[in-house]
Write a structure and sequence with these properties.
Elements: H1 4-34, H2 45-78, H3 106-131, H4 133-138, H5 145-158, H6 160-170, H7 182-204, H8 213-231, E1 235-238, H9 244-250, H10 252-255, H11 261-269, H12 272-275, E2 278-283, E3 289-301, E4 304-314, H13 323-339, E5 343-348, H14 352-356, E6 361-362, E7 374-379, H15 384-387
Parallel strand pairs: 4-5
Antiparallel strand pairs: 1-2, 2-3, 3-4, 5-7, 6-7
Length: 399
């Protein structure tokens, strides 16, 4: 049997550990909020960092909920008397504790003390009935084993999607389970927080308060810093006229074919191929283009809107920082959000492995158009097999 002092220490320990988990939850969900709908830079490194830490939080919450169930079973077996309904003496407000104006009538202090005491009693009853509804139904003075069994079962029900996520995404035990959502995570955190508050209040006649004001402010600042680290301060936009020479020169070292810079720029400026498409750039925090690509609206395939992508290039000194991947990802998202375009083609002049990391798939050999350039496709909603179901399908020749 756990002593009363040990009980208090355990409850305090669980509360403080939960505060730590709640800080992590607030931090990670705020980072996700900041990243909402935006690509994560540097290929998959930051993506894996963010979501592996989120999975780690889910594992720790799941472990904590099991630990909490063990604690609830201890309460059920050893500490039912700590939750007697008539334990209200500590809630009474003494008249001398009322700070009133000088020379005020002592009767007023007594009256105010009674009012405040009643408010405390009413709040206690509200919390008690929420935690132990069966006690009121049975008109008894304390909870029994079945009341704690109900609390435990309700907690398990809230944590079902969390446990399923653990088994599916983290441990890979059960592929049939659905991954948890942020809403599931929020429900789990809120359930534990309310349960700990109620246990603390009804057993110790006090309130934990869960003072998170300063913590929340700190979390908000940290989440912005992490979001900036994960996404960078870059954003995608349509290219402007004044951007074009900068865009053309991004590929000068690869596509100039031994021309000097002036001749190369002249050819780019007069190119019908370049004029026929729409250019997009990834700009830095100062509005300067760091990466660029051109898009072409192609004929629909099987009724699906199609975009062709080409001339993907980055300022030479800024390469290998994930800018091209950021640009590709965000450009596809812009088209999808604008008109539902979900099929994107590109001609890879570099290793296809780079684009495969961004969700592009190499078309089978019979659809390839030329040597030295591999046609690849990215389908946001349908798989490649569905796209190629049409026997008349051909890779689009647009570049």
């Amino acid at each position: 049997m756990t002593s009363g002092t040990a009980f208090d220490k355990i409850l305090d320990k669980e509360y403080h550990y939960f505060l730590h988990l709640k800080r992590l939850y607030l931090l990670q969900t705020k980072v996700l909020e900041s990243c909402d709908g935006r690509p994560i830079r540097n290929d998959l490194i930051y993506h894996q960092l963010l979501f592996s830490s989120l999975d780690g939080l889910i594992l720790r919450l799941d472990n904590f909920h099991e630990r909490l169930i063990g604690f609830l079973n201890t309460l059920k077996n050893d500490h039912l008397d700590r939750f007697k309904r008539n334990n209200k003496n500590g809630l009474a407000v003494a008249p001398e504790a009322i700070h009133s104006f000088d020379n005020s009538d002592p009767k007023e202090q007594i009256g105010l003390a009674r009012i405040l005491s009643k408010e405390h009693y009413d709040h206690f009853d509200k919390v008690y009935d929420r935690l132990f509804p069966g006690v009121k139904v049975r008109n008894e003075g304390r909870p029994n084993h079945s009341d704690f069994d109900t609390i435990i079962q309700n907690l398990r029900n809230t944590f079902k999607p969390i446990r399923a996520h653990r088994d599916t995404v983290v441990a890979h035990w059960d592929k049939e389970q659905e991954p948890a959502t942020i809403a599931d995570l929020k429900n789990a955190v809120q359930h534990i927080e309310l349960l700990l508050k109620d246990l603390f209040f009804t057993s110790k006649l006090g309130s934990l308060g869960f003072e998170l004001g300063g913590v929340a402010a700190s979390v908000s600042r940290t989440s912005k810093e992490l979001a900036e680290l994960i996404m960078g301060s870059h954003r995608v936009r349509k290219a402007k006229v004044e951007d074009m020479d900068t865009i053309y020169l991004m590929g000068f070292d690869v596509w100039s074919d031994n021309q000097n810079e002036n001749d190369y720029l002249t050819g780019c400026r007069s190119s019908k191929k370049y004029a026929a498409g729409t250019w997009y750039v990834l700009e830095d925090g100062d509005g300067k283009p760091v990466s660029a690509l051109i898009t072409y609206e192609l004929a629909p395939i099987n009724g699906k809107l199609v975009i062709g992508i080409g001339s993907i290039a980055t300022v030479p000194e800024l390469r290998r920082k994930g800018h091209a991947g950021h640009l590709l990802w965000d450009t596809a998202r812009l088209f999808f959000e604008r008109n539902g375009t979900d099929v994107f083609f590109l001609h890879a002049d570099i290793s296809p492995a780079y684009y495969e990391k961004l969700g592009f798939v190499r078309l089978p050999d019979k659809y390839q158009l030329r040597t030295g350039s591999i046609v690849m496709v990215k389908c946001l909603r349908d798989n490649l097999a569905q796209l190629l179901a049409d026997p008349e399908f051909q890779a689009p020749e647009y570049f």
